[in-house]
Design a protein that fits this description.
homodimer, alpha+beta, 4-stranded antiparallel β-sheet, 205 residues, NADH Oxidase
Chain lengths: 205, 205
C-alpha cells in the first residue's frame, strides 16, 4: 500500500463501522497521540489534551454522552480531543524545552509569553477559538497518521460537551472539541463522499 | 525524500521565512485546495471557503489586516481559510452528488438535512464551532499535502478577523479561521519545536 500523503488524503473515509474482533495496543495509541501533538499551535501553546477511551466501562460512559452512537463501543479506541482555555498560563513551561534546545533565546520566550498573555488574558472568545483551532489541527494530524498506519478513523462532533466533561472529569479549562474513533474499519463503510467543485470554494486574488 | 506521513508530520515546521524569488502556479494552488477539501466535515457540510492571496496588491491588503506580519508578503501564497456559518442551509446541495454517486439514498440526505437543520438553525455557537472545526481540519490537510509536495507552510492566527473580512469582501457567513502561508521556505526557519511529554497530554481509560 502506498502511503503517499495524496493517497492517504484521498482514501481516508469517515469510518462508522469497525471490526470489533480487533484490539489496539498502548503503543499504537501512544504513537497516534505523539504524532498528533506534532501539529502546530499558536506560540507552540500545545493547548490540547487527549483522553483515549478504550475500556468497555469508559466506552459505555462516552456512548451515553455521545447520543448513544454505537461506533464509540465498536471502535478500538475513541479519542476525546480537548482544546485548553487560558493556555497562555502554561506557555512559559511549554516553551522552555525550545529554549533548552537552543532553538531560540530566553528573551524570545519571555516576549511570546508577554504577547500571548496580553491578547488572551481577558478574552475568553480568543481562548476558545484557539482551543478549537489547536485541537482540530491535532485531530486531523492524528487521523492522517492513523491512515498511514493502516487504521481507520471517524471524527464526531455529535456529542454533548457538558456530559462528556462530567463523565470524564474534565476541568473547566478543557473544551472537548471533537471525538475521533480509531481502529480497524470494516469493509462496509461508505467510500469518501464527493466534494464541491473547486470553483465553489476557492478564489485566487 | 521520503514522503511517508510520519516523516511529513515530524519534519513540518511552521514557516515564517520564504524564498521570495520563487512563484507558485495556479495548478499547485488548486491542487492544495482540492486536497484540503478532502478533509472531513460534519455531515459532509464542506462549510469552508478559501481565498488564495497571491498578487502583490492582495498581499498588501492582507498584511495590513494581519498586524503587518511580513511573511504574508514573502510567502508565494497565503490562504485565508474560512469556515461558514448556517452551513445547514447548503447541506442538501452539498450532499446531492453523494446521492447521485449511489453512495446513499435520497431519504438519507433528507434525514441528515432535517437533523442538521434542527441542531444548527437557532444555535450560532454550534455553527461557529462547526466552522472552526471544519476550517481547521481542512487547513491541516492542506499543510500536510503541501509538505508532501516539497512546500512549506505557516499557520497564523494573528490577524484581525474584522479587517480581513472587510479587506476581502467576506460575507457575514464567512468566518476567517486561520491564515496559512505557503511556498518555498528559506533555510533559516527554526526546526520543529519540542513538544510536551506524552504523559502530560494523554490519559488512557
Amino acid at each position: 500500500m502506498s502511503d503517499s500523503i495524496k493517497t492517504l488524503i484521498e482514501s481516508r473515509v469517515s469510518t462508522g463501522l469497525y471490526d470489533t474482533s480487533r484490539t489496539l495496543s498502548d503503543e499504537t495509541v501512544n504513537e497516534l497521540v505523539r504524532l498528533a501533538t506534532r501539529a502546530p499551535s499558536a506560540y507552540n501553546l500545545q493547548n490540547w489534551r487527549f483522553i483515549a477511551v478504550r475500556s468497555d466501562e469508559a466506552k459505555a460512559r462516552l456512548k451515553a454522552a455521545a447520543y448513544d452512537q454505537p461506533q464509540v463501543l465498536d471502535a478500538q479506541v475513541t479519542f476525546i480531543v480537548c482544546g485548553r482555555l487560558a493556555a497562555h498560563e502554561g506557555l512559559a513551561e511549554a516553551l522552555q524545552p525550545t529554549v533548552d534546545a537552543g532553538i531560540f533565546a530566553q528573551e524570545m520566550l519571555e516576549g511570546w509569553v508577554t504577547e500571548a498573555s496580553a491578547s488572551h488574558k481577558d478574552n475568553i472568545n480568543k481562548q476558545r477559538d484557539e482551543a478549537f483551532r489547536s485541537a482540530s489541527l491535532a485531530a486531523m494530524t492524528l487521523m492522517l497518521a492513523a491512515e498511514g498506519m493502516g487504521l481507520s478513523t471517524g471524527p464526531m462532533s455529535g456529542f454533548d460537551p457538558v456530559a462528556v466533561s462530567e463523565a470524564f472529569g474534565l476541568t473547566e479549562k478543557d473544551v472537548p472539541v471533537m471525538l475521533v474513533t480509531a481502529g480497524y474499519g470494516s469493509d462496509e463503510n461508505w467510500p469518501q463522499k464527493p466534494r464541491k467543485p473547486l470553483d465553489q470554494v476557492l478564489e485566487i486574488v
